[in-house]
Amino acid sequence: MAAIACLAAMPLTATPKNAAPANPAASSVFAPGRCVARAWGAGSGLPGISVRALAMTRDGFIWAGTEAGLARFDGVSFVVFDQWNTPALGDSRILSLYRAIDGALWIGTDGGGLCAVVDGEWRRIGEKDGLRSPHVRAIAGDSTGRLWAGTEYGAHRIDGETIDVFGLDEGLSNNIITALAISPSQDGRERLWAGTMWGGLASIEDGAVQLFDFDDGLGDLSVQSLLARPGGDLWIGTMKGLYRLSNNEKRIRLVPGVDDCPVTALASGPDGSLFAGTMTEGLKILQGSRFTDLLADDDLADSHIRSILVTPNGFIWAGTESGGLVQLKERTVGAITVADGLSEGSVYAILEATPGSVWVGTENSGLCLLRDGKVVRVIDKGRGLAGNMVRALSKDQAGRLWVGTMDGGISIVDGARIRNLTAADGMPSNIVSAILFEDGGGLLIGTERGLYRGRADKPQGSSPVAGLEGQTVHALYRGGDGATYAGTRSGLW
Question: How far does CA 345 lie from the centroid of its chain?
């Protein structure tokens, strides 16, 4: 039976007016088998391999809290903040993150208290300010801007300079707060939910603490994660599975699909999808009334999910215990065929034209321009191309398209104008299978007779590259080390 302890009046939340339980829809993008994972670890600039908290700020940065510092990620590189370069943190071990309604990023540390950063300015709240413990495991905020911090000494309500503490004396059954969530209600008030290490679930509303334990249907008292959804449902991740407290229901019910599995992270997507991170079974998504695996076991470097962030555009970020930061994207593989206007024959060359459009060189039907999956332009021998057997595509510094063919030399496409260069014009061969531009206006042309070097402004003067005479050159590549690689019939040069 739920136990109730009265406190001084505190305007938090009313009990949600629950409707019949409704299952959130599975994401149409992130359905099982339709996504791929990419991971960043310590070798990528992440300060630690255990990502315990994730948040996204208004400027689009992803923030990852690790055991060795806080990292700001722009999708390419990390900027690291720790107790040495940012003393306001107090401790480099990050336990929790929360973006407040005013845009501030709040950081809970494992020994340094609570910290906030707004527009590059850092602020710290510690024991001298009223925190009973410097170990902040969870953070949440209500619609008025008040902040809640879950520590090893109860839940702290922070309202400006005032901090009120709710612990054992105020009715909690356990002081160690592991998770926080705030659910809205129809009358405008809000209810705080607090998960504890060994004491089950508690709610704080209008000055009263209400406890939920075995008698209320909660099968395990070690709460690891909480998620309050707009409809009023509360999802409760424990060391022995996932539970749900639905609208208009007094009992907590076990959710199928994650029975006896520790549920360490919960998140909701913009399309109503719901994700659960587990300690032993990776990342799961709710489909219908059951959770199923979102990824195969070998798609994740670590099956222990510590945190989940779903961005407004629907991308999923997951923090793992020992595998770093993981991003999930839609697996977008499809086919463009003659039904979409593509010329018949095999495709031998592809090159981006502009963002959203690509040039496609075909086996014997010339060149096609694709935009949004549809063919918008065709250039073949009848429309001025040197030949229909396209094998190479490249762009020069002026943005002109160079087309290497197997039956007519090179065509230079500059908008609507096409200039053809053949052996009769002084080109080394009419069979051109590779084109690569070098720094300073240099040009490399791969043919069936070898590799030739010249200049883009006068390709007719190209001369053979020593050592590759007589080699059929199929591909050219300029490496990051500045070296040029040639793929030939007899190997790589």
Answer: 37
